[in-house]
Amino acid sequence: MKSDRPQLAAMQQILREGDVIYIYKLDRLGRSLKHLLEMTSDFEKRGIGLVSINDHIDITTAQGRFIFNIFASLAEFEET
């Protein structure tokens, strides 16, 4: 698994509060569920939104955060 992602690191450095990241699918952002959860938690703390177009998830809304957490819990359950 390739963990060196210079473009992702560069994007994370320039993000500001109020920015919204649009991605095609959640699995294109995180290399693992743990990595994805860490990044989305960091985005939320920094006031940065995330919208996954294909997954129909928008963590800038309460409903989107709820759905994201359900999907994350199901994925974690599948790993055990």
TrEMBL record:
Keyword Iron: no
An example molecular function term from Gene Ontology annotations: DNA binding
Keyword list, A-Z: DNA recombination, DNA-binding
Domain Resolvase/invertase-type recombinase catalytic: 1-80
Matches recorded under CDD domains: SR_ResInv
Cross-referenced InterPro entries: Resolv_N (IPR006119), Resolvase-like_N_sf (IPR036162), SSR_resolvase (IPR050639)
PANTHER family given in the database record: DNA-INVERTASE FROM LAMBDOID PROPHAGE, SERINE RECOMBINASE PINE-RELATED
Protein name per the record: Resolvase-like protein
